[in-house]
Design a protein that fits this description.
Elements: H1 2-24, H2 28-34, E1 40-50, E2 58-73, E3 77-90, E4 94-96, E5 99-101, E6 106-120, E7 123-134, H3 137-140, E8 146-159, E9 166-178, E10 187-198
Antiparallel strand pairs: 1-2, 1-10, 2-3, 3-6, 4-5, 6-7, 7-8, 8-9, 9-10
C-alpha cells in the first residue's frame, strides 16, 4: 500500500510537470525559435522508489545526472549520453537477532547511452542502456562492482528562454542485473523521476 501511494505521488508529480509544459508552450513557430538545433546539455536531479525485491532493504534514492542529447534528426531524434550518481538509502532500524541495525546504502554510478525520440512536440520517449558501477560493494555484501543497466523513460521537454534553455522532466524505470550472484536483493530496480535544466 505504501509503495502504491508513493508511485501514485510520483505519477502526479510527473503529470504536474506535463501540465506545466503544455502551459509554457505557445505555438510551433515560437517553440522552434527557442529550441536549439545542436547538441543539448542538461543537469538534473534524480529521485526514485525501489521496486520488487530491492525494496525489501532499500526505501528511496536521490542523486543527480548530466546528459548530452546529440541530434540525428533535427528536433526529433537524438542520441543520448548520460552519467550520474544515485544514493539508494537503506532501511533504518531493522530488527535483527542482536537488536536493530541500519541497512547500508547503495552508491551507484550509472553510465548510459541510448535514443530519445519526440513523436509529438515537447513529448519524448527514451531508452538507454549501459553499465552501473557499485562504489561500495563491500558495504552491501556484493561480489561484483559492475552490472548491466537499462532505463526506458517518457518525459516532456519545453523551452524557457529565447536562447534555447529548457526544462526536461521525465519518469523512468531503471534496473540492473545482480551485483551479488544468486541474491535477488542485489538487483537494483526503481521507478525514478528526473528534473533537469538544459542549455
Amino acid at each position: 500500500m505504501k509503495n502504491t501511494f508513493k508511485i501514485s505521488a510520483l505519477a502526479l508529480a510527473f503529470a504536474a510537470f506535463a501540465f506545466t509544459a503544455k502551459a509554457q508552450t505557445t505555438t510551433p513557430t515560437s517553440t522552434s525559435t527557442t529550441t536549439k538545433d545542436g547538441i543539448r546539455y542538461s543537469i538534473g536531479v534524480d529521485a526514485g522508489l525501489p521496486l520488487g525485491n530491492f525494496n525489501d532493504n532499500n526505501k528511496w534514492n536521490l542523486g543527480g545526472s548530466v546528459q548530452a542529447d546529440i541530434p540525428v534528426i533535427s528536433k526529433q531524434l537524438f542520441v543520448t549520453i548520460n552519467a550520474g550518481y544515485n544514493n539508494v538509502f537503506g532501511e533504518k532500524n531493522v530488527a535483527g537477532t542482536n537488536g536493530t541495525f541500519d541497512e547500508p546504502n547503495f552508491n551507484l554510478l550509472p553510465v548510459k547511452a541510448g535514443l530519445k525520440f519526440f513523436p509529438i512536440q515537447n513529448f519524448y520517449v527514451q531508452g538507454e542502456a549501459g553499465a552501473a558501477f557499485l562504489l561500495n560493494k563491500n558495504d552491501v555484501g556484493a561480489n561484483k562492482s559492475t552490472a548491466f543497466v537499462y532505463a526506458p523513460q517518457v518525459g516532456v521537454q519545453f523551452p524557457i528562454s529565447a536562447n534555447g534553455n529548457f526544462i526536461d522532466a521525465g519518469v523512468r524505470y531503471e534496473a540492473t542485473t545482480k551485483f551479488a550472484t544468486g541474491i535477488d536483493q542485489s538487483k537494483v530496480s526503481f521507478l525514478g523521476i528526473r528534473v533537469a535544466y538544459g542549455f
